[in-house]
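If your schedule permits, I should be very grateful for your opinion on a structural question. Kindly check, if you would, that the fold set down in the tokens agrees with what the sequence suggests. Thank you for your consideration; the sequence and its tokens are set out here:
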Amino acid sequence: MFYDGAKCKNGAGAGVVLVSLGGDAMRYAIQIDFTNPTPTNNIAEYEGLLTGLRIAISLGIQRLLVKGDSEVVAQQTSKGYRATNQNMASYLQAYRRLESKFDGLEVQYIPQKYNADVVSLASRAASRQHLKGDILVKVLEKPSIPI
């Protein structure tokens, strides 16, 4: 699975691409439509990750390799960085709850140039651009963390 989050003047969004071992891909654009907490780029990254994990769980996926270009999220989920901000700590707790539903889950950092398809999805979702018919659109009206 690949994920990304984006924040722009028009809003925030995220992108998720689930790729099967056979190479088939499902693309999701996630429009973030909540204002509390105020979406930041890191919040958009976590919302993309968590939405992708929930989709994978609903599909019955048990083992998942996740790649994203947020070093903060990758390091926090792999216990390399501590989440000192309250919102980031809450998002990390939400990740831990979903992590327990997998037999194997690993989040890896990759440079943005290797994440271009998902970066484009996230940017288009954040700016509310028109999306092709093969891209599934999800709208988040509330955050994945308690407020």
